[in-house]
Amino acid sequence: MQAHLFFIFSFVIYLLTFLGHLTSLILNRPHWQSLALKGILFGFVVNAIGLVIELVHTGDFLLTSTSHTYAFLSILIVLFHLLLSVRYRVNFLALFSMPLVLFLMLASHLATGGDEGRELLIGYWLKLHVVLTFIAYSAFASACVTGLGYLIQDKQLKSHHPGKMFQWIPPLGTLDEINTRSLIVGILLLTLGLLSGFFWAKTSGGVFWVNDPKVLCAIAIWCLYSFLILLRVTSRVRGRKVAVVSVFGFALVILSFIGVNHTVIN
Fold it and tell me: What's the average model confidence in pLDDT over 106-116?
């Protein structure tokens, strides 16, 4: 019950901060952004406390429940949002990241079932695999958000009649830097996450490979982003194209993530 109250409270805070950002954009009140950022930080703390209470109550520290995986991913996305906002002084991220966070929180609340019935061997490799993989997906979410910002800013520059969002969104160079670094961090963490998962499979079952939909999905995502980073580093793809692939890439992550969990439950 306590965890449910924390969920509702944090959901309302996130919703209000998103509406505050949207209102400040419409009314051209940039100074409201700092207040909204404090609201997101407060919502993050409340949300994190609620999830910890829930995990302690259920003992599902490996996030085998579909509901808990969505909740944990939403918290990590907010954490990346806060870090990027402080590091690069960019506040526009809430316009894109908060709807995604709200969607994941609703999915967490509505999700039922999961992998609780599986016989899981709890070990350090598995714990490491879960944490690294989810942080990697959060980094890809940050690349998606900055990619959206890049596309909007690029369109406004080409129109020669920039709108209100022009002064809110950082220069294209800053967005490209955030996007690239987020992609690199994400692929490094996902690589480590996959390796730790393979080691866990080896220690628990004697084989490195586990024919699991989530594993196959993670490998497909790794191939997609590795190919994108390779093209980016070799300068074959830059700017707008990277932003487009970052957006559609994370959309595939979400769709496959939901699809795999639905398949596992069935």
Answer: 68
73: its two tokens: 């991913």
Q: Which residue has the tokens 């998103």?
A: 18
| 15: nearest Cα among 77, 106, 128 | 106
Which tokens sit at 158? Answer: 């080409």
Pairwise CA distance, residues 132 & 122, whole Å: 16
Q: What is the pLDDT of residues 40-75, one digit of tens each?
A: 999 999 999 999 998 888 877 767 677 888 888 899
d(CA 2, CA 18): 25
Domain span including residue 228: 2-265
Report the alpha-carbon distance of residue 188 to residue 226 in Å, rounded. Answer: 9
Q: Kindly report the CA angle at 64 between 107 and 227, in degrees rounded to 5?
A: 75
* Burial bucket for residue 136 (CB in 10 Å: 0-12, 13-18, 19+): buried
In total, how many domains does the chain have?
1
pTM over 0.85: no
Q: Are the beta carbons of 143 and 80 closer than 8 angstroms? A: no
